[in-house]
Amino acid sequence: MDGSRKRGKRMKRRKREHEGFTLVELLVVVLIIGMLATVLAPRMFKGLGETKAKIARVKIARIEDALARFQYDCGRLPDESEGGLEALLVAPPDLEEKWKGAYLKRSELEDPWGNLIVYISEGEYNPGSFDLISFGADGQEGGEGDNADILND
């Protein structure tokens, strides 16, 4: 009987030894996760900025398409005196019969950072045409990286 008691105690000790993780093991896992997060997080957020710039380019292309449809229907491009891109949403008074819009939704006139895309009917960057400009994340002219200006072609 003594032999079976000793074996029973040994079995209980072994079970206790393998029941959970020690504090050191948990701290090592937390440390590893923290190190991975510090390395991977900047890469993930960099991609987010690049994605917003791509979305801005797509929105500018959609506005260009809407301006082409406006020009086809109305015989001219909108000018700043009638609100610029507002003419894509609401018919200018002198074009109510020709206007077949709305050509866009109001939300499509904003870049991914919530700033209005700027329309210049007499293009500075595109002479003989028009300019569409998103001023990037900072909403200011100029800049680099996420703050860089995005223009139509």
Can you tell me about this structure?
This protein is mainly α. The chain has one domain (2-151): Glycoprotein, Type 4 Pilin, CATH 3.30.700. Helices cover 44% and strands 6% of the residues. It has two helices and three strands. It has helices at residues 2-17, 23-74; strands at residues 118-120, 131-134, 150-151. A three-stranded antiparallel beta sheet has the order 1-2-3, with helices on one face. The mean pLDDT is 81.
Could you provide a short overview of the structure?
This protein is mainly alpha-helical. It is 44% helix and 6% strand. The mean pLDDT is 81.
Q: Any idea what the CATH superfamily is called?
A: Glycoprotein, Type 4 Pilin
Shape: elongated
SSE string, helix = H, strand = E? HHEEE
The major beta sheet can be summarized as:
3 strands, antiparallel
Count up the helices. Answer: 2
